[in-house]
Amino acid sequence: MSIEIFNPNPTVFATAKAARTPAYAKGNSLWLDDGQPESDEEDESNDVEVIDQDEIFELIRSISDPEHRSMTLEQLAVVSAPQISFDARVPDRLTVEFTPTVPHCGMSTFIGLSIRVRLLRSLPQRFKVDIKVKPGSHQSEHALNKQLNDKERVAAALENPALLEVLEQCLSTVGGHPDSAVV
Questions:
Q1: 121-161 residue pLDDT tens
Q2: Which backbone phi and psi does 155 adopt, to 5 degrees?
Q3: Which residues are CB-contacts of 110 (< 8 A; sequence separation ≥ 6)?
């Protein structure tokens, strides 16, 4: 698949030290594996585990950029912890903003889709996730936001084998150290 380069020379930023992988992500994710056998003990409490901004960031920081696969979204400053917010009235509703590297980035839809799929695979079903482009950071901001939050469009994109293959490649580095992304 031939990909047009929208940003041939991106600025690479230093990454923060990775925190521990949250317990809920290990059990619910296809991509995080700590190499330890899972315990047979089930958590029998009915308490809902609170998930915070840093844990959400930990889930998405190591997604590979679709255009520059050797770099993560964190390294390109596409995602950061302050761009993740929870609705004060509905704690299970969160918004993830991302900042494309250039205002005409053709991979913005794909980046948003990667973030959405990562969170869908990792978070409990009770969460409602909104993915948005940072205001003023893309020339097609409104259209991108509409597309990224339309269930039918997301489902149609995930049925496309070519898109799904590239998506899986971007998510294959999730949970790893940012410097270990594969080209």
A1: 999 999 999 999 999 999 999 999 999 999 999 999 999 99
A2: -60, -40
A3: 66, 163, 166, 167, 170
